Amino acid sequence: MSNDLMDLITAYRAKKLDVIPMRGVNGALDYLRDLGYDIDIDGIMDVMSRPEFTGNDGVVERSDPNSIKLRPYIPEPKIGTDKKVKDDEKIEKVAAAGAEKAVKSGDMDI
User: Fold this and answer.
1) Which of 5, 49, 58, 80 gets the most CB atoms within 10 Å of its CB?
2) Which residue would you say has higher pLDDT here, 82 or 51?
C-alpha cells in the first residue's frame, strides 16, 4: 500500500498540488479502495505517519481526516548552461596544461 500511496503523491506533485483530499473522486480513500484495499481514513493516516512519509526525507507534512498535506516541493538546483560551459572550459584548460607539462618533463611522448 505504501507504494500505491507514493504513486498518488507523485501524481499530485506532478500537478504541483500540495493537498490530497481524503474523500471524493480524487481522494486517497477512493483511490486505495479502487485498487482493492479494505481501508478506512484512520488506516491511511497510520500509513502516512510512517517514517518513509514523515521522516526527514518524507513528503508528508501532516495528515488528518480531511486531507493529506504535502511538504513544499523544492527542486534540486540545476547548473545553468553558462556555468556548465565555463566549467567545461576550465577542465579543458587544466587538462591541456597538464598534458603540456607532461610533454615538457618527458613523461609523455607525442
Assistant:
1) 5
2) 51
